[in-house]
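Purpose: get a first structural picture of the assembly so the mutagenesis plan has something to point at.
Setup: two entries, given in the order below. No constraints added.
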Amino acid sequence: MGRLDGHVAMISGGAGALGAAIVRAMAGEGARVVVADILEREGAALAAELGEQGVFVHLDVQSTEQWQAAVDAAEQRFGALTILVNNAAVLRKGSVAQTTTADWDFVMSVNLTGSFKGMRAAAPAMERAGGGSIINISSTAGMKGFADSAAYVASKWGVRGLTKHGAMDLAPKNIRVNSIHPGHLVNQMMSLDASLADVPMSFAHVPMQRPGRPDEITGLVVYLASDLSTYCTGAEFLADGGEMAGLAAAV
Amino acid sequence: MNATAVHQPSSAGTGRLAGKVALISGGAVGMGAAHARAFIREGACVVIGDILEAEGRSLARELGDKLKFVPLDVRDDAAWERAVALAEQEFGALHVLVNNAGVLTLGSVTDVDDQLWDTTFAINVSGVLKGMRSAAPAMERAGGGSMVNISSHNGMQGFEGVIAYGTSKWVVRGLTKCAALDFAPSNIRVNSVHPGSVMTRMAGSDPIDHRHKPFNRAAKPEEVSELVLLLASDESSFTTGSEFVIDGGEIVGFSKHWRKINNNYQAN
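Result (structure tokens, whole complex):
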């Protein structure tokens, strides 16, 4: 007995570090999983690892048409879509004054508009299935400000707000929408922006003094996807080592 | 029945913005025009930018030498540069930016098409970014300044049927915090204001049911102006990156009156 038996889940950015962890956790709980990503090789390999439970679809979340095709593929292959995890994201550093319009538009297009398009494409399929759960991966960057990260922070605040307004729109259709706010994760910067791979990060300000692991996020995702959380909607779920609660004593 | 006496703006100010120069986007009508009147009352010089040229020029004629109108589509970087340049040329500096221009678009998750989403964000979000980017160098030259970004109660919680508008106002709230951190070394403060319903033409002329709100009414634009004025002035010199809700208590909870008339609520 898995907590997601009978469910069909789609995870955008499903081939990335956090995305792959979510895919494996959901499959482990009995869900059939659509791995949706622009990373063809990694995504196809992950889906193959899941056997009959998994399928890969190419998805650039910026594309309205590709979202529709991905939802269609989920229904054709598995008969329904009941769970969407809007996980795909990119990061470009830059202050409000220095962020280029190109960087700004790219980050907003992937992180925020991509999540909106995913919700819009998935909602009718979930309605056909009798209901569903949408989980938007925001960040602690959707709860406070960070210097030199204008586009990323703005997009993650947008995802938090999209979640609340979307929850109001979709509650009558028995579709729940919630946001998850991870703090710093292992390898997160590298997976979001390769140019930052060698930038040393300090965790001195985090009460737990360390970054989180992807498997410390997946429990929340599975919970919100499952029927254990059927009265949760429009809500915010943190997993941040205490970062939002206050500054570590070490600082 | 109103819970409090409603603010009546006086015609005589006390110079709370004396020596300041302000730029207000969407300043020709509604809340923006109310902000311009309050700022001038308190001694500021004001540039209003708007796409509504006739209304903007009319307000400029009415308010005299201390107010200049400039055509401004907030999506246009070059128009922003012209607006900032006009402030410095006409009045010698720029100290205050009010990102007030915005568009209300309607539609739920499944109603809103790509074009409506993109237009909403180009005006309500990119317009704010471009305004801050254009104004910051002038404020640095002036030794510092204050930016006031008009978000909404839609940026504090969720509402049905406003997915693009509502989400855009959350982005403004977050972007304000980044700007506060990025511009603090330049002595520029950045805060967001979150009005509930305000009696302007954006809100429309349809009667709105306010009975669930503790104050059972919409705000007058002038009530919002007093908050914007506070944030623009040096009276708030230690305030940055913060959120200022002005909604008659709406997001706190339901009014006592609403509890009485809503049978479903009572049954629960």
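The longest helix of chain B spans residues 114-141.
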